[in-house]
C-alpha cells in the first residue's frame, strides 16, 4: 500500500458527479480550492492544516458553500480550526460548540459536522449568532 500526499486537486474537475470525497492526511490548508462539485454531499478533511488564522477559514467555508451546494457531511477533525480538547489542552467543549455554530452559519445545509448530527437547536443558534462565534486564540 502506498500513500500519496495530495498537492493539487486540479484533476477533480473531471469528476463533476462526485458525491463523496475523502482528503484526510494531505497537508491541505485554508487555501484549498475545489472545482465545482454540485453533487458532493460528503467531504472529510481530517488531519490537515486548516486553521482559523486571519479569516482564511471563513474564506474556505464560503468557498465550500459555493462549489459544493449539496454538502451535508463535513469533517474537520484533527485540524487547528476544529478545537478539540483531545488534541489541544487549552480547548474545551465550549470552544468546540462555538466552532460548530460558526461552521453551521456558513454551511447551512450540513446534517453532520465531524462526528455529530446537527441539531435543530444548533441550527437556530447558528442562524442568530454563528457569525460571531469564530474561535480565535488571543495574542
TrEMBL record:
GO terms for biological process: melanocyte differentiation. It comes from the Eukaryota. This is LRMDA protein. Gene3D superfamilies: Ribonuclease Inhibitor (3.80.10.10). InterPro entries: LRMDA (IPR043313), LRR_dom_sf (IPR032675).
Amino acid at each position: 500500500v502506498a500513500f500519496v500526499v495530495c498537492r493539487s486537486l486540479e484533476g477533480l474537475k473531471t469528476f463533476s458527479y462526485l458525491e463523496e470525497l475523502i482528503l484526510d492526511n494531505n497537508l491541505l490548508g485554508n487555501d484549498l480550492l475545489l472545482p465545482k462539485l454540485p453533487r458532493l454531499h460528503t467531504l472529510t478533511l481530517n488531519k490537515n492544516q486548516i486553521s482559523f488564522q486571519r479569516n482564511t477559514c471563513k474564506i474556505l467555508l464560503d468557498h465550500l458553500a459555493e462549489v459544493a451546494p449539496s454538502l451535508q457531511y463535513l469533517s474537520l477533525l484533527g485540524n487547528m480550526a476544529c478545537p478539540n480538547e483531545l488534541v489541544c489542552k487549552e480547548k474545551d467543549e465550549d470552544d468546540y460548540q462555538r466552532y460548530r455554530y460558526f461552521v453551521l452559519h456558513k454551511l447551512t445545509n450540513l446534517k453532520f459536522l465531524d462526528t455529530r448530527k446537527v441539531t435543530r437547536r444548533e441550527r437556530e443558534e447558528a442562524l442568530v449568532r454563528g457569525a460571531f462565534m469564530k474561535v480565535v486564540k488571543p495574542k
